[in-house]
Amino acid sequence: MLIEQPNILLKKIYPSALWRMNPEEKAIYLTFDDGPIPEVTPWVLDKLDQFGAKATFFMVGDNVRKHPDIFRMVVERGHGFGNHTMHHIKFFDRNSLRYMDDVREADKVFIDNLPHSPLNIDHLLLTIEQPSKGQSSIVNGQSPMVNGQSSIVNGQCRLFRPPHGFMNHYQYKKLQWAGYKIVMWDLVTRDYSNKLTPPQVLSNVLRYTRNGSIITFHDSLKSWNGGNLQYALSHALWFLKEEGYQFKLL
Question: What is residue 31's DSSP assignment?
């Protein structure tokens, strides 16, 4: 449980981060880290479609650069996305200024590769129109809208999740000052672990999911190669839907 769910100390380190949504609402918030990649992400999208579920993908900018068609597939199917840095850097690999440079580089790649997006980030419109309830759209050919929420606001991603779930104090503060909403988790499935079997990963989901949970899976080869993601996500979607949970976007 120390790994699967955040402890009180970790929450105190990042007090303004988003850890869990409304505990009074029978809804969960699926998230996927480290993609997009062609070996895994399209399968995840098909599986989500099968259950009518939406999710938020925290993407590595360099993967979007390599696989822009997969990135656009996520957007066009009505899912949200957030910034997971350009190179999936650890907090101690960069000083605070270089860390922010890496974050902003990822934002530029996202915007450049949006469906019908202009190639110049300076052209991004700041006015966001509201789509019909429950639908997604591209506003003025630029910003993807999902249930009234825009993944891009004021020329940058609205949401940010730090790789490995850690930032130093200065990185945390700079991200806050820059206007990012930092999203952590209520449940990490540990689908990436080669020490867990697929049923054990599923057990984490069944045991720790609760109202308002932000649940973290990974659309990565680490999660895929051992079969953890395929088994756990398929069974979890079925179980959570049977339990009456709504699948909502951040």
Answer: E
Burial of 7 (0-12, 13-18, 19+ CB in 10 A): exposed
Calpha distance 69→36 (Å, rounded) = 9
CATH of region 8-227 = 3.20.20.370
pTM exceeds 0.70: yes
DSSP letter, residue 86? S
DSSP 183-240: B--SEE--TT-TTS-HHHHHHHHHHH--TTBEEEEE-SHHHHHTSHHHHHHHHHHHHH
Residue type, position 47, single letter: K
Each domain of the chain, given as residue ranges in start order, spans 8-227
Peptide bond into 36 cis (omega under 30): yes
| pLDDT tens track for 228-241 | 999 999 999 999 99
What is the Cα–Cα distance from 141 to 124, expressed in whole angstroms? 10
Burial class of residue 108 (count of CB atoms within 10 Å of its CB; 0-12, 13-18, 19+)? middle
Retrieve residue 97's tokens: 């200024």
Contact 206, 239 (CB under 8 A): yes
Please report where in the chains the tokens 């079997």 appear, as a residue. Answer: 197
**Please, which pLDDT band fits residue 4 given cuts at 50, 70 and 90?**
confident
Helix axes 68-76, 41-50, angle to 10 degrees: 10
